[in-house]
Amino acid sequence: MSLPELTEVLIVGAGPTGLACALSLHKQGCRDVLIVDAVEHGEDSSRAFAVHAATLEVLDSIGCAQPLVDAGSAQQGIKAWDGTQLVTLADFTSLKSQTKYPFVLTIPQTDTERILGEHVHAAGILVRRPFRAVGIQPDAHDANYTRVLFESGQTVRARYVIGADGSKSTIRQAAGIGYKDPHTNNESRGNLERMVLGDVTFQDQLDERFSGPVATLSPDNLFLTIPYPSRANGSQRMYRIVCGVPTSSPPPPSSPSKEYLQSLLAQYGMSDMVFPNRKPDQVVQLDKVVWSTRFRTHSAIADKFFTRLGGDGGVVLFIGDAAHIHPPAGGQGMNLGLRDAVSLGSALAAHIKATASSPTTISYKPLQEWADHRRELALKIIGLTKSILRVASLPDQYTWIAGVVPIPVKLVTLRAWGLWLLAKSGWMQGQIAWRLSGLGNV
Predict the structure, then answer these.
(1) Domain boundary among 389, 406, 433
(2) How far apart are CA 297 and CA 311, in angstroms?
(3) What's the predicted TM-score (pTM) here?
(4) Domain range for residue 23?
């Protein structure tokens, strides 16, 4: 299969952000859109697992929210367990007056991508695989176009190129755009520097109080348990688990084994009392590991989300991980990327229409304003995820006031007191839900 030689909009990357952007453009009347991706098939693993209210709101504008809701599971809150108390961290039901989606939707990324892909196919938008982009260059015949070069030797001329090709974006690198952590202090993330995640089943069912997303907090680490939206493996419920890897341990394997995950569960996971049918001397056991992987938590953001090749050439824009990346705390990554994508579709479609009506007075200011706004929001999300990790990885040590006066209370004890206060305050639970939902960061 060959690529067309010319297109108005070329989206490099057929993940959720690239697909959502194409649907947004199509919704606004743009029909000359081509999506290319380097791999033969879509994502076959399920990293991202949460879709928040603000994201569902924008996906509703392109007709994709309800199919996702139907395929996922609406979770009304997120809880924390520190070994002694179970506390609601975020109460999403408090958002009923702000959104018609007052919950966090748990749904595997594979399902999200599949549903978006079905809508792209139904709209007749071209998706071409596998075509790996290897570079870009100005078009020699028309300065308003960019030539995108492919490993196959083919070339596509596009007036607008959208890099949705991940954190190692070929398009961003070819455009010469920097990509780095916006903060220079290189703060340590301790045991959360390296993390593993897996889709597993337990030998016994959890207490119903722990049936939703639960973050088990311990000194220096976090063990997160999220139920899958439907039952798997017969009567057993499948769960997504996430845990930090101790800094004193060797690097985790690329696909952690059942034994490896079991060791983390024994050290940092939920206690036996969470499994009501177990005997006191029995250890919580994993039953099956369906899929597992490892990753490093790090943050980076592109210096620009919008550029013109050579300063006055074709337009190149960045969304999703090609524009920003950050720790997965709070399930923010794919959500921010999807909101980037839908908003870019609206902004770019408006620019294309304005250009068609006044081709001699083309203004790129609206695209620059879109880029500046999205970058500002991304910086806020990076700050939010880093704050979550700091609280989740508090060390078992004493703290000081202003670095001078010692307080004879450990940081984890202060956190426990904070959780106790949080349990008493529905307002605070609502505020945390508001920040995680993205409704104030659209």
Answers:
(1) 389
(2) 34
(3) 0.91
(4) 6-72+107-183+299-389
